[in-house]
Amino acid sequence: MTGSYNLDTMKTIMSALGNPQENYKVIHVAGTSGKTSTAYFASALLIQTGVKVGLSVSPHVDSVEERVQIQGKILPEAEYCAALNEFIKIIDTLSVKPTYFELLVAFTFWEFDRAKVDYAVIEVGMGGLLDGTNVINRADKVCIITDIGLDHTEFLGDTLSQIAAQKAGIIHTGNQVFTYQQGQEVDETIEQTTNENQGVLHIVPQPHPEKNPELPLFQRRNLFLAESAVNFVIDRDGLTLRD
Q1: Taking the complete model, does pTM exceed 0.70, yes or no?
Q2: Whole-number Å distance between alpha carbons of 238 and 97
Q3: Which residues is 27 bridged to in the sheet?
Q4: Coil, strand or helix: which one is 176?
Q5: CA–CA gap between residue 203 and residue 136 (Å, rounded)
Q6: 10, 135 Cβ separation under 8 angstroms
Q7: Distance of alpha carbon 25 from alpha carbon 178, whole angstroms
C-alpha cells in the first residue's frame, strides 16, 4: 500500500482503456468476512444460467491467476502472463503509474472485456469506497455486503460505523444492495448510503437451519446471501437456472 489511497490513478487508467468495466453486468462484493466464498458462490450460480461469467477474488490464495477466472476456471499461467505482458505495454504508455493492486484490477477488467463476459463477480480488495475495484458506475450493478467487523483500521477507521461506510462505498446510483442485519451501527450506515444513492436495500433473512446442512453455518449464510442476489439478477434479466 502506498501513501495515497484514492481512485485517481484507477480512473485515469480505466478512462484511457475505454472503461472496459462498464461493458458487462457486475455483482460487487464487499465486507470483512465471507466475501471470497460469497463471490465464488455467486459466480457458480450465474454460470448455471448459461451466461459467460468472470470472477475476480482478492487476495488470491495459491496463484495470481485466481484474480482472472472465466466460467469458474483460472486462465492458464502462460495465457495469463502473455495477456498481462500485452497489458503492461499499454500501461507503460500512460502518464500514471499504478500500484501492484491497481495494475491487477485494471488488467482484470480489461481481460474480462476482451473475453466478452456477460457478467463479472468482483470481490473488493480492501474497504470499498476507495478500493481500486470501485470504478464500476453502471446503475444495474448489484452489491453484496457480507459481515462487517473491525479490519484495516489504519485505513478504514476504528469504529463499525466508519468501516461500514467504507464497505458501503461500493453502492452507486440506482444499485441493488443485498446484506444481512448486522446491528444498528452497520445497518443504519448501509441504509443511509443506499438511500443517498437512490438504491434499493434488500435485508436478507437468515437461512433456514436445515438448508444445506453439509456446510458449516457461516458458509450457509454466505451461500444464501449469494443466492439471494443471484436470484434477483435471474428474475431481472430473464435468466433460467439449468440443472
Answers
A1: yes
A2: 41
A3: 121, 142
A4: strand
A5: 23
A6: yes
A7: 16
